[in-house]
Amino acid sequence: ETERTFVMVKPDGVQRGLIGKIISRFEERGLKLVGAKFIQIDQDLAEDHYGEHEDKPFFDDLVEFITADPVMAMVWEGQDATRQVRSMVGETDPAESPPGSIRGDFGLDLGRNVIHASDHEDPGANEREIDLFFDEDELVEWERVD
Ligand code: CMP
């Protein structure tokens, strides 16, 4: 099923100049970019986005980290896109992510893991996150011809 999924290069990835490499991986894989914005996340958006981690001991650090510098927020479309992207991203912990995955190749540690992608085991997470970051008219309909 063709679907859209939310992906974000986190502040550590932006600071280390990894935006282009990460975009290239999704492009080369055949996914279609339908939305992108380079923004600095404010406190409210950070707390909404990471709401499920509110009670975790690392929550305050997580919000501080994600708001400290800009992020590249994107929506990618494709067949089974959420699961496809998750497999390209790797595990939450870069140390447990295989070489060839984005976190396995670029991630430094649990916090500085370069990229966020919607959880494919949380139904609706992709739509929820897309809605949080994008208005409908910011998503572009176009045909990719390979
Ligand atoms: P992500 O899956 O994008 O969303 C939640 C984030 O919380 C996760 O990436 C990690 O970067 C971060 N995280 C998870 N566990 C820890 C932890 N124990 N310490 C610091 N950050 C964490």
What is the secondary structure topology, with strand pairs?
Layout: E1 2-9, H1 11-15, H2 19-29, E2 32-39, H3 43-49, H4 59-68, E3 71-79, H5 81-89, H6 102-106, E4 115-117, H7 125-133
Antiparallel strand pairs: 1-3, 1-4, 2-3
The structure holds adenosine-3',5'-cyclic-monophosphate.
Adenosine-3',5'-cyclic-monophosphate binds at residues 53, 58, 62, 92, 110-111, 113, 116.
What does this structure look like?
- Major role in the synthesis of nucleoside triphosphates other than ATP. The ATP gamma phosphate is transferred to the NDP beta phosphate via a ping-pong mechanism, using a phosphorylated active-site intermediate.
- About 40% of the residues lie in helices and about 20% in strands.
- The chain has one domain: 2-Layer Sandwich (Alpha-Beta Plaits).
- A four-stranded antiparallel beta sheet has the order 2-3-1-4, sandwiched between helices.
- It starts with a strand and ends in a 13-residue tail after the last helix.
- It contains seven helices and four strands; from the N terminus they run βααβααβααβα.
- By secondary structure, the chain is α+β, with helices and mostly antiparallel strands.
- It is globular, with a radius of gyration of 14 Å.
- Adenosine-3',5'-cyclic-monophosphate (CMP) binds next to loops.
- The site of adenosine-3',5'-cyclic-monophosphate has 8 residues, from loops.
Uncertain stretches of 5 or more adjacent residues? none
| Computed structural class | alpha+beta
Q: Supply the number of structural domains.
A: 1
- DSSP summary: helix tally: 7
In quaternary terms, these chains amount to single chain
Give the overall shape.
Answer: globular
Give the H and E element order. EHHEHHEHHEH
Strand content: 15-25%
Instruction: Please name the CATH architecture.
Output: 2-Layer Sandwich
